[in-house]
Amino acid sequence: MLTNYDSYKIEIKNENFFTSDGRICPRTAVISFYDSKGEEIGSELFGVMDVNEIYKMIEEGKSIILDNLYINDFSLLSYRKYYGLDKKASVIINNLSAKNAFFESSIATDFSHAIFGQGDISFEGSHFAKGKSLFNGCNFGNGNVNFSNILFRCGDIDFSGSIFGDGDFIFKNSIIRDGIKNFQDIRFGNGEINFSNTEFNNGELLFINTHFGNGQFSFKVARITGSKVDFHYASFGDCDVSFERTEFGNSKVDFRAVDFGSGRINFNRSIFGNGDVTFEGASCRSDKIQFKRVEMGTGNKNFSLLEMEKTEINFEKTNFGNGDLIFNNSKIKNLYLRSCNLNHYVDLRVCQAEILDLSDSIIRDIIDLEPYEFKVDIDIINLTGIRLLGKIYIDWYKNKCPEKIMAQKDTTTRQKAEQFRILKENFNGTGKYSFEDKAYVCFRKLESIADLKESVEKDKWSILWNYPAYAFKWLVFDKIGLYATSPSRVLISVVLIWILFGIIYYLIQLSGLGMTMSSVDNADKLTPFVQSFYHSAITFFTIGYGDVYPQGLSRLISGLEGFIGVFMMSYFTVAFVRKVLR
Taking the mean position of all CA atoms in its chain, how far away is CA 362? Predict the structure, then answer.
C-alpha cells in the first residue's frame, strides 16, 4: 500500500469483495490516493465491514480477522457504551489479525484496555489514516505483536500502561506522522522489541518508566525530527540495546536514571541534533557502552552521576558539537574520549574511573579535572597526541599526575614524555608555575631515557658513547639542578662540589703528588687542611687573590675546578632568574 500520499478519497460500492482467505464482504471500498498537487498516484480495494458486526463478533468470542478491510470508527469505548460496561472495563478480543487494513475515525481508533489473549497479533501493513490510535492499557498476552510497515497519519498514538508477555514486539519500517507517541509505563516480556527504520517525525516520543525484558531492543536507523525523546526511569533486563545510526533530530533527549541492564549497549554513529542530551544518573551492569562516531549538535550533554563501575564507555571519534559535556561525580570503569572534537567545556571530574583516555583528541576549550567537592579518583590518564588549543584544569598532587601517566601500560616512554610536555605547557598557560617545573622535569627525564633506548635500538655499539652521555646528563642536568628548575638544589650542589675539591686538594698533599702553597708566607697560619678548602673556594668562584697557588697535580685539579665553578654559577643564575621572572 502507498505511504507517500498527501490525501485520499473513499468510494463505497455495493460489490462483493473476496478476501485472500475466502471471506466475502458485500461491499467494496475503493480508496484513491493523491499527492500534494492533487494528482492521483494509486488506488486500493478493501472489503467493508460494519463496526457493529465487529462488536457482535467480539461479544460472541469469535476470532477477529480484519485483513484487507476498511474499518470506520472502530472504538471499544463505543462497544462498552453499547453493552453497558465501565469505561475502562477489559474487553477480550480473540485471535486478532488486521493485516493491510485501512482504519479511519473522526476521533480515535480505540483498542484501549483490550485483552488479546494468547497467540500472535498482527497489524502489519495497515494504515491508520484518520484520528488517534489508542492501545493504552491493553494486555497483549504471550505471542508476537506485529506493527511493522504501518502508517499512522495522525501521529498521536498511545500504548501507555500496556502489558506484553513473552514474544516479539515488531514496530519496524513504520511511519508515524507528527504527534505524541506514548509508550510510557509499558511492561514488556522476553523477546525482541524492534523499532528499527521507523520514522517518528515531529512530536514527543515517550518511553518513561517503561520496562523491557530479556531479549533485544533495536532502534537502529530510526528517525526522529524533533521535540522530545524521553526514556527516563526506563529499565532493561539482560537485553542488547541498539540505537545504532539513530537520528534524534533537534530533540531534547532524556535517558535520566535509565537502568540499561546487563546487555550490550550501542549508540554507534547515532546523530543528535540541536537539543540537550542527558544520561544523568543512568546505571548499567554491562561491560561496554559504545558511542563511536556519534555526531552531536548544539546543546549540553549531561553524563553526570553515572553508576557504571563495571562499564567501559567508548566515545571514540565522536564530535560533541557545541555545548558543555559533563561527567561530574560519575562512576565508570573506563572512559574513552579518543580522537574526539571537544569544542566546549568538559567536566571530567569523575569520582571513580580506572582509565581516562583523551588521546588524539582536539581540545578547544576547558577540560576540568581538578577536584572540588569530592575526590577525583582516576587510576590512569592518557593524554597522548592531544592537540591542546584550550586548557586543562588539573592539580599535580590531587590528581596524582605522574602516577596516572606512568601507570600507562600501552604507551611508550616517548609518549609518556610527550604527555608531560603537554602538561608543562598547560601549567604555564594556567599560571601554575610550580606544577610546570615538575612536569618539565618529568618530560626531560623521560625524553633522555627515550633518546637512549631509541639510539641503542638503532645501533647496539652506540652504548659505548650513549651510556656515558646519558650518565653525564643524569648527573649534571637532573641531580645537580633538576633541569634549572631548583636554584636551592644548584646552591646545595655548589657547596658540595666546593667541599669535594677541598678534600681532593688535601688528599693530594698527603700523597705527595701536589700541594697548595702560600705566596705570603702563610701570614694567617692556615693548616694544610684549611688551606686546601680556602684554595678550593677562591678557585671555584674564580676570585684569584694569588695568596695561595697550586703545585703538582693540584694545578690540573684547579683548572678543572675553575671550569666547573664558572659552569655552576651560570647554572645557578639561570635557575634563579627563571624563578624570579615568573
Answer: 15
Indicate the burial class of 424 (C-beta count within 10 angstroms; 0-12, 13-18, 19 or more).
Answer: buried
Question: 59: Cβ–Cβ under 8 A, 6 or more apart, which residues?
Answer: 83
E-strand stretches of 195-259: 199-206, 211-212, 215-218, 223-230, 235-236, 239-242, 250-254
Amino acid at the residue 272: F
Confirm if 400 and 370 have CB atoms less than 8 A apart.
no
- Alpha-carbon distances of 33 from 7, 8, 54, 173, 522, rounded to whole Å: 6, 4, 26, 20, 123
Chain segment 429-488, per-residue pLDDT in tens: 998 999 999 999 999 999 999 999 988 888 888 888 888 888 888 888 888 888 888 888
Question: What is the helix (H) or strand (E) element at residue 362, kind and residue range?
Answer: strand 362-363
Q: SS3 of 281, please?
A: coil
Q: Quickly list DSSP for 65-105.
A: E-TTEEEES-BHHHHHHHHT--TT--EE-EEEE-TT-EEEE
Helix axes 433-458, 413-429, angle to 10 degrees: 160
Task: Tell me how far apart the alpha carbons of residues 443 and 414 are, in angstroms, rounded to a whole number.
Answer: 9
- Ordered by start, the domain boundaries in the chain are 1-48, 59-213, 487-581
Q: DSSP string of 286-335?
A: SSEEE-TT-EE-SS-EE-TT-EEEEEEEE-TT-B--SS-EE-TT-EEEEE
Cβ proximity of 341 and 363 under 8 Å: no
The whole-model pTM stands at 0.84
Residues 6+ apart with CB under 8 A from 123: 98, 99, 101, 146, 147, 150
H or E element in which residue 392 lies: strand 391-393
Q: What are phi and psi of 200, to 5 degrees?
A: -95, -15
- From 308, 320, 315, 254, select the one nearest 290 (Cα to Cα): 315
Convert the pLDDT of each residue in 292-318 to its tens digit: 999 999 999 999 999 999 999 999 999
Cβ neighbour number for residue 290 with a 10 Å cutoff: 22
Cβ atoms < 10 Å from Cβ of 15: 12
The three three-digit cell numbers of residue 328, written as one number: 561530574
pLDDT single digits (tens) 194-209 = 999 999 999 999 999 9
**DSSP character at residue 225:** E
- At the topology level, CATH places domain 487-581 in Helix Hairpins (1.10.287)
